[in-house]
Amino acid sequence: MILIVDDKYENLFSLKTLLQLYAYETDTAASGEEALKKILKNEYSVIILDVQMPDMDGYEVAEAISGLNKTRDIPIIFLSAVNIDKRFIAKGYDSGGVDYITKPFDNDLLLLKVRTFYRLYQQRMELKKVEEALRREIEMRKRSQEEVEQINSLLEYKVEERTKDLTQLNKDLESRNAELAQYAYLASHDLQEPLRKIITFIKIIDEKYLAGIPEAKQEMTKVITSSERMRNLINALLSYSKLSAGSYFAPVNLNEVIKDALADLELAIKDKQALIQVTTLPELDAIAAQMRQLFQNLLSNALKFSKKTIRPQIKIYSELVDELSMEALPVQPGKYVRIHVCDNGIGLDESYIDKIFVIFQRLHGRTQYEGTGIGLAIVKKIVEKHNGLIGVKSHEGEGATFTIVLPLKQGNNTN
Predict the structure, then answer these.
(1) Is residue 355 part of a domain?
(2) How far is it, in rounded angstroms, from Cα 384 to Cα 104?
(3) Histidine kinase domain: which residues (predicted)?
(4) Is the pTM of this model over 0.90?
(5) Phi and psi at residue 342, in whole multiples of 5°?
């Protein structure tokens, strides 16, 4: 909207009519005081201001308008028929005007200037709106950034606290596991002596007093068998508990380890007439005694669960891989060794695979196959202690393949 300020009605009427012909919305004021009141209430894009007016001339009105934050950017065009001297024109610019037109004026020139200053004002207002929007956006983003930083700081604190809690829990768990392993070892060790005496005295009674009593001798044989099974179970528990103790990793020749394990199983191998094939295996960082126990348990397991009508065949071979994975492709050189122990035994249903590594878990009755149910649990614990993986593939009646993946080099010297 354009405000026309003049103390003469005919001037107001002519200018208003001219501007309305070109679709400008206009407002009028007959004095400087009225103009200032309207300016404070309404928003104007251009002010056409007469210089010579009673009480408050145009210069004073312009200075008042320029002094207000709300109105200082409104373009003021001075219009005068009397004060046409250069010094009056200069005073008009000094008081805040953007142009000074003397009467009589050319209508087209006036309209051109009004249109120009009108557009400039509108553009300036749009720019201000954009600047204000940008300022609000910046402030909002700054607040959001501060909130994000606060949240991140809180999260970091929570993570740090949680990490401390988990670290302490791990320490407590390790301590309790060590205590539990020590307790299991001591309990199993302390059971050995009384059980040894029980078995000794039972055998003395059997040989000395039950020779002529077949029924009693038969029952005593059951007692001896049960006692021997208990001793085997206690020995297995001792072996399992020892795995929790810290040990040093050192370079281990797996070929020598398997040779020793085969020597320990020599009688069982001969009894079963088993055929054992072992390819050359690499050297790795390990705990030698535990590696020997691992292969001895796997070989013993393969011999135990062999078919009665078929000669047992066991094959041990390996390949190098670059990942701790059952499926990684073989590479040379590799960071890990993947070892396979294959047999042609009775196999097992794949639905039971997850159970075979659980301590005391048996898939067959004691009358079918002897054992404590700890052997494969020990194997799994040894593999985990060496930061490796173990898995098995098998089908019932088609044998089984145990696969172990172990690092060639350990990240630290103890475990």
Answers:
(1) yes
(2) 104
(3) 186-410
(4) no
(5) -110, 145
Q: Which domain holds residue 362?
A: 249-414
C-alpha distances in angstroms, 89 versus 3, 63, 85, 92? Answer: 21, 14, 6, 5
Q: What averages of pLDDT result for each successive group of 10 residues across the chain (415 residues)?
A: 89 88 89 89 89 86 85 85 76 85 83 87 84 88 88 88 85 69 59 74 79 78 75 64 67 93 90 93 90 90 88 95 92 93 86 67 45 73 91 88 94 62
| DSSP-assigned letters across all residues of 220-243 | HHHHHHHHHHHHHHHHHHHHHHHT
Q: What is the pLDDT of residue 188?
A: 58
pLDDT of residue 241: 59
Among the listed residues 232, 351, 247, the one whose alpha carbon sits nearest the alpha carbon of residue 291: 247
For the CA atoms of 24, 30, 36, 41, what is the dihedral angle to 10 degrees? -50
Q: Is there a domain that residue 228 lies in?
A: no
Task: Give the bridge partners for 29, in sequence order.
Answer: 5
Which of 82, 105, 128 corresponds to the end of one domain? Answer: 105
> How many domains does the chain contain in total?
2
Structure tokens at 404: 């172990």
What CATH number is attached to the domain comprising 19? Answer: 3.40.50.2300
Q: What is the CATH number of the domain that holds 349?
A: 3.30.565.10
Q: Does residue 233 lie within any of the structural domains?
A: no
* Residue 149: inside a domain: no
Helices and strands per DSSP (H, E), number in the chain: 10, 12
| pLDDT at residue 243, rounded to an integer | 61
Q: Among 55, 70, 105, where does a domain finish?
A: 105
Q: At what angle do helices 9-21 and 107-209 cross, to 10 degrees?
A: 60
